[in-house]
Amino acid sequence: MMCRVYILAFLFLFLGSCGNSAKKSKEKSDIKVSNNLQVKDNLTTQVKSKSDIRFELGDEVLADLEFIKSINTTCGRAVGVIGNDDKQREEFEKNCNFYKIKYNYYELRGLEKSQKVFEQNNNYSLVLNVTKRMTDSDDFKFIGLYTIDKNKKIDSLVVFSYENYIEALVEKGRIFYIKNNNVFLYDFNEDDKGIHSEKWRKYEIKAGKFNELQSVVLTK
After folding, report:
1. In sequence order, what are the residues at sequence separation of 6 or more whose Cβ sits closer than 8 angstroms to the Cβ of residue 1?
2. Alpha-helical regions (H) of 79-171
3. Lowest CB count within 10 Å: 113, 126, 148, 183, which one?
4. Structure pTM?
5. Average pLDDT, the chain
């Protein structure tokens, strides 16, 4: 089991585990919203204040498609599993562009109730909420971004996911960047050969609906 340590170390800390027992459930159209985030360190402390930004959440590097593509060329492991070799691990993290993502997505593992993250004046609110999807992974968590008007769901989009396939030594994840009405999603996986970009998407929120503007598959 020691050979598993490095493969899962970053993603376990970065994305966290869930322990959901259900494999499938239906989303509810009525969302009870809490106005205060309860997750560790408070997500709102990471919302930046800039003159051209009404709302921002996540790491802005995820909006850069060229950066996302560079992960496939900088995050391969020539030696396979690194295990507990500190020198090899430090060298890998130094060269792998994935580690330039600095936003603390790890705290999302503590999200258990719906939490409002932004409210448009006299319009919809943006809410993060734990959601469930069908998966055959051993350990998982999914979080959706909901647009809510008067406690009624307008639309939703899974913006964060963590799936751990223990026997296969593979973890899959999805993280996000939100800026004003744009949402960027980044799907990736990690195995003994490294960290691999799978898919990148850009959405626009218009009238509370998530409209896909661009989708790029990055797997070879």
Report:
1. none
2. 86-95
3. 113
4. 0.77
5. 77
